[in-house]
Write a structure and sequence with these properties.
The protein is of the alpha+beta class and 89 residues long. It contains three helices and four strands, in the order βαβαββα. It has helices at residues 15-26, 44-50, 70-85, and strands at 6-10, 31-35, 57-60, 65-68.
C-alpha cells in the first residue's frame, strides 16, 4: 500500500484541525497526520511548507496544493473531492 497523497499538519485537540479531520473523514480520504510543535515559534517544518507557522495545514501531493487555514482547506476539499465523493452528482 502506498503512502496517502494528503498530509495534514495539526495540533492535538485543536478545533480548527478537527474541522479538517472531519471533512477528510467525510470524503473517506486517506491522509497522514503530522503532529507539530505546540509552540508557534517552533513550527519550522510547517513554515517551510506553507510560509506560515499556523495549523492546520495540508499538502496534497496528488494536486500539488499546499495550504493552511481551516476554512480554506475545507473549501479546497469540497471543491476537489466533494463531487467525486458524491459519485459525480
Amino acid at each position: 500500500m502506498s503512502d496517502p497523497a494528503i498530509t495534514l499538519y495539526r495540533l492535538q485537540a485543536c478545533p480548527f484541525c478537527e474541522r479538517v479531520v472531519r471533512k477528510l473523514d467525510e470524503y473517506d480520504l486517506d491522509y497522514r497526520s503530522r503532529f507539530v510543535e505546540p509552540m508557534h515559534s517552533d513550527r519550522d517544518a510547517v513554515q517551510r511548507l506553507t510560509g506560515k507557522r499556523s495549523v492546520p495545514a495540508i499538502v496534497d501531493e496528488s494536486t500539488g496544493v499546499t495550504m493552511s487555514e481551516s476554512g480554506n482547506i475545507v473549501e479546497y476539499l469540497d471543491a476537489t473531492y466533494g463531487e467525486r465523493a458524491k459519485g459525480g452528482a
